[in-house]
Amino acid sequence: MSSELIKDNILFGLLFDEGCYQSTLEACALGPDLALFDNGDETEIGKKGVLLSGGQKAQVALACAVYARTQFVVLDDVFSDLVNSAAGWQVQLDKGQIKVQGTPQQLQESGALLQKLEWDAHNYAEQEAIDSSGAATNTKVEKEKKSTKKLVEDEARSIGSVTVEVYRTYLSAGSYWLFGLLVLFLALGQTVQLLQKFWIKYWGESYNDRVKFSAFSRNWLDFGFPPASHNVVPYLSVYLII
């Protein structure tokens, strides 16, 4: 089901035939459902038919198959989305012949299709009264000349570099102090990595007391530790602290 008009989903690329189209709407009991929308069959249903209920989706899909006038139609679990308003008369076929037929109430009382349908007789009587007093469903669906409302509006976009206002809005949404803490932690993380590299260098130079320390190690990192070959505990302790 495409995110187009209900009418387009029924036609499915075929040429429009007014008589055939109206007969299809009547056969699929879509008249009362289309009357619920301001634009009738000119209503945009959205992605995957989000605007329609499960029963209405099934009716539109069935209407598409009926309008196509194909020789064979494969239907899977046709009663799963059946609703009271669309079930005025049910027919069950067996090898091309009518096995049982009647109103849902009659079939329920006789026990036919009991495994397929569970109908509430009281709710059906109320729905039948509404259908009989509402309007004749065999009349054409009146189409009011209204502008078609788009369910999904076209998105706007900006072209060019990102403005300072965008960054300011982004920072204010996450709070400035939180952003400051993030920068501080990133800086501390980089500092700790540098200290680890310098300490490993100092540690490696201290293994041989005959090796001359670099100027940096001799002037700034002279902690008076013994050579690492004699006692490695001080070096390991500082490394673990870092």
UniProtKB/TrEMBL annotation:
MF-aspect GO terms: ATP binding; ATPase-coupled transmembrane transporter activity
Keyword field contains Transferase: no
Membrane spanning residue stretches: 176-195
Sorted UniProt keywords: ATP-binding, Membrane, Nucleotide-binding, Transmembrane, Transmembrane helix
PANTHER family with a match to the protein in the record: ATP-BINDING CASSETTE SUB-FAMILY C, FI20190P1
One CC-aspect GO term: membrane
Signal peptide range in chain numbering: none
SUPFAM superfamilies linked to this entry: P-loop containing nucleoside triphosphate hydrolases (SSF52540)
Protein name according to UniProt: ABC transporter domain-containing protein
